[in-house]
Amino acid sequence: MKRLILALALLAAWPVFAVTPSEVLDNPALEARARDISKGLRCLVCRNENIDESNAELARDLRVLVRERLVAGDTNEEVVDYVVNRYGEYVLLKPTAQGANLILWIAGPAMLLLAGGMGLAYVRRRGRAEDGTEAGLTREEEARLEDILRE
Amino acid sequence: MIVELGHFALVLAALVACIQMIVPMVGAARRWPGWMAVAVPAATAQFVLVAASFAALTYAFVTSDFSLRLVVLNSHTAKPMLYKVSGVWGNHEGSMLLWVLILALFGACAAWFGANLKPSLKARVLAVQASISVAFYAFILATSNPFTRLATPPMNGEDLNPLLQDPGLAFHPPFLYLGYVGLSMAFSFAVAALIEGRVDAAWGRWVRPWTLAAWIFLTIGIGLGSWWAYYELGWGGFWFWDPVENASFMPWLLAAALLHSAIVVEKREALKSWTILLAIMAFGFSLIGTFLVRSGVITSVHAFANDPERGVFILFILAVFMGGALTLFAARAGAMQAKGVFAMISRESALVANNVLLAVSAFVVFVGTIWPLLAELAFGRKLSVGAPFFDAAFTPFIVALTAILPIGAMLPWKRGNLTRTMQPLWGVLALSLAGGALVWVMQTGGSMLAPVGFTLATWVTLGALTDLWSRTGRGGLSGRVRRLRNLPGADWGKTIAHIGLAVTVFGISGLTAWESEDIRVAQIGERFGHAGYEIELRDVLRVPGPNYVATLATMAVWRDGKEVAVLHPEKRVYPVAQMPTTEAGIDNGILRDVYLVIGDPQEGGGYAVRTYIKPFANWIWAGCIIMGLGGIASLSDRRYRVAAGARKRATGVTGVPAE
């Protein structure tokens, strides 16, 4: 939440302001696409902040670059590829599902299967314990039963 | 002099904690009542000493004692009193002192209110709690002493980070810490139970109030932080999946899981070893959170102290406590025999599913948080994991959780019948789906987020109310209303907390799907329209504040030709810290916020102005408050207040057991 602290501290001398009116494209469809792309690109000098929200100078340059490519007729993918080619995958806030990153993407579903399977096995075991050993009432339950019967 | 006394008190507290760690533990092992009894006065003394130490540091901040290094770095004479006080914990050293203060507070509470605990268990709990304290006293005294003096005190201080000078953030850390550290109690109970080799229904009943309290504080703390981000950062974001936010969110998820699994231990004496493991892991994640924040391993501005020495020390604490507890767990968990028997369709199974979903979702957040670090260390790839990943990977868990919640909450213990449980819920389900469909039709295009969010929120809310109503049994309306009032606190707490979750889910999906934004240059006197509102920039003034200079705008909001609000968005510059901050002008409403931000003057005249319409924003935090209230209602249940004596008389409550 306090990610802006550093960005602001660095930029006290040049107060700029996330997306400024001068950057906004006249074509609303292109602008919407630019905003969409910007939300997935990281501001390189900030901490875990996308270029759309960032106040940093470098983020502004990237925003302008994204808009230039869009105006030049690139598709969204082409724009992102262009930026990644220049700055590396570090700019992607949503990591690709390639190579080692597969671990990241599969970790959740795999863990869910594992934990779900263990949970299921546990539940079935508790269910079968009933059939096999027909556990008698606990002492508390017996006492309670006695109370009820006495009434 | 007072500062030295505070320093001395801190050292004494560390020594008392050492005694509290060793003597009762030996006493419990040897069954020496005298040695065990040492725990209570030791816990009290430790608390009094840390409190004195904390008071001394607060005194130094309040009186602006610039011979203290910490005060110089984080305070200034011109700062308002509230922020002089909150400056005490607005930095690394002070926040660690707050950490041990709360640790000692929880220990003392266990000592004071645990009169009904079995003596050996109580001695062990307090000893384990003290061992955590000892580790953190050592950390503070060795690496982060707040009482370091300067040889030549400067005339004035360097001021607190201006972003932290805010009422919301002044109270955000204490609440968060009460939550983090509160989980230490669950940890201490878990480790003590492992040493005792005994976990029963009474244990579940003792550990639940502490977990509940910690969870309430975490909920409020996270909510405060999110609310602060919303109004302070200047564009109305409320959650960023920042590593440090995740650090507080993971313990919250695990605490929520622990709350639910402790019910199974309490009611049915099943899921024992899992609950113990969860109690250990919940506190483990608090420690991991501390490590992430304090070491700066994962870059984030929250990491005020990027100091490897401190990071290694906390990592060492983490390794000792987690390693020790998990080893103990591995050795002893086998002895925890489950007693309760239950069928596949039962409340127990539903709570197992709840735990699987919550624990795995916490795991997903964890993997996402540390992945950049792992990828760089193991594969040499420098990459980022940001909000888009978490949104995609985490949201399905919340959807699944809220989808099964109303059914699971109404299933009977031991053995249920899905057809019978669903009977009163079919109507609710149909209504929720119809509502979702209506939302989908009404919003032209757009994502499925809002319809799904609305359906789930309605489903959970109405489901919770149906559940509560069904607890009043049969018969006439008046009789049922009377019984409704007499339902135990835990029943009410369950309903309220689940509704709170629904409100937050709805707020998040509504805001995310429907917010709109306008960025433009506005001249003074200009009026422009956005999303059915008209905004007029009336005036912009430069106004001096106590320790800042503000650019203060006056802006009017019109709707249908009527003036709805006059707002004053500000841009502040703090000269001492050389930092600007934005203060948004917000017209709060139940259905929407109008959110105005004033920017820089433009070359051609006029100012950059941003206008946001944020639908249902306040529902997000209202939901957090409602969840907290639900927790308090549950905590007020007299079965927990008389908790300890409940071992022999668990009966005496009419109707179906709560939760």
TrEMBL record, chain A:
<keyword id="KW-0812">Transmembrane</keyword>
<dbReference type="InterPro" id="IPR051263">
    <property type="entry name" value="C-type_cytochrome_biogenesis"/>
</dbReference>
<keyword id="KW-1133">Transmembrane helix</keyword>
<keyword id="KW-0201">Cytochrome c-type biogenesis</keyword>
<dbReference type="GO" id="GO:0005886">
    <property type="term" value="C:plasma membrane"/>
</dbReference>
<dbReference type="Pfam" id="PF03918">
    <property type="entry name" value="CcmH"/>
</dbReference>
<comment type="similarity">
    <text>Belongs to the CcmH/CycL/Ccl2/NrfF family.</text>
</comment>
<feature type="signal peptide">
    <location>
        <begin position="1"/>
        <end position="18"/>
    </location>
</feature>
<keyword id="KW-0408">Iron</keyword>
<comment type="function">
    <text>Possible subunit of a heme lyase.</text>
</comment>
<keyword id="KW-0349">Heme</keyword>
<dbReference type="InterPro" id="IPR038297">
    <property type="entry name" value="CcmH/CycL/NrfF/Ccl2_sf"/>
</dbReference>
<keyword id="KW-0732">Signal</keyword>
<dbReference type="GO" id="GO:0017004">
    <property type="term" value="P:cytochrome complex assembly"/>
</dbReference>
<protein>
    <recommendedName>
        <fullName>Cytochrome c-type biogenesis protein</fullName>
    </recommendedName>
</protein>
<dbReference type="GO" id="GO:0046872">
    <property type="term" value="F:metal ion binding"/>
</dbReference>
<feature type="domain" description="CcmH/CycL/Ccl2/NrfF N-terminal">
    <location>
        <begin position="7"/>
        <end position="149"/>
    </location>
</feature>
<dbReference type="InterPro" id="IPR005616">
    <property type="entry name" value="CcmH/CycL/Ccl2/NrfF_N"/>
</dbReference>
<keyword id="KW-0479">Metal-binding</keyword>
<feature type="transmembrane region" description="Helical">
    <location>
        <begin position="102"/>
        <end position="123"/>
    </location>
</feature>
<keyword id="KW-0472">Membrane</keyword>
From TrEMBL, chain B:
<dbReference type="GO" id="GO:0017004">
    <property type="term" value="P:cytochrome complex assembly"/>
</dbReference>
<feature type="transmembrane region" description="Helical">
    <location>
        <begin position="491"/>
        <end position="514"/>
    </location>
</feature>
<feature type="transmembrane region" description="Helical">
    <location>
        <begin position="394"/>
        <end position="413"/>
    </location>
</feature>
<dbReference type="GO" id="GO:0015232">
    <property type="term" value="F:heme transmembrane transporter activity"/>
</dbReference>
<feature type="transmembrane region" description="Helical">
    <location>
        <begin position="207"/>
        <end position="229"/>
    </location>
</feature>
<keyword id="KW-1003">Cell membrane</keyword>
<protein>
    <submittedName>
        <fullName>Cytochrome c-type biogenesis protein CcmF</fullName>
    </submittedName>
</protein>
<keyword id="KW-0812">Transmembrane</keyword>
<dbReference type="InterPro" id="IPR002541">
    <property type="entry name" value="Cyt_c_assembly"/>
</dbReference>
<keyword id="KW-1133">Transmembrane helix</keyword>
<dbReference type="Pfam" id="PF16327">
    <property type="entry name" value="CcmF_C"/>
</dbReference>
<keyword id="KW-0997">Cell inner membrane</keyword>
<keyword id="KW-0201">Cytochrome c-type biogenesis</keyword>
<dbReference type="GO" id="GO:0005886">
    <property type="term" value="C:plasma membrane"/>
</dbReference>
<feature type="transmembrane region" description="Helical">
    <location>
        <begin position="277"/>
        <end position="305"/>
    </location>
</feature>
<feature type="transmembrane region" description="Helical">
    <location>
        <begin position="175"/>
        <end position="195"/>
    </location>
</feature>
<feature type="transmembrane region" description="Helical">
    <location>
        <begin position="125"/>
        <end position="144"/>
    </location>
</feature>
<dbReference type="Pfam" id="PF01578">
    <property type="entry name" value="Cytochrom_C_asm"/>
</dbReference>
<comment type="similarity">
    <text>Belongs to the CcmF/CycK/Ccl1/NrfE/CcsA family.</text>
</comment>
<feature type="transmembrane region" description="Helical">
    <location>
        <begin position="352"/>
        <end position="374"/>
    </location>
</feature>
<feature type="domain" description="Cytochrome c assembly protein">
    <location>
        <begin position="89"/>
        <end position="295"/>
    </location>
</feature>
<feature type="transmembrane region" description="Helical">
    <location>
        <begin position="96"/>
        <end position="113"/>
    </location>
</feature>
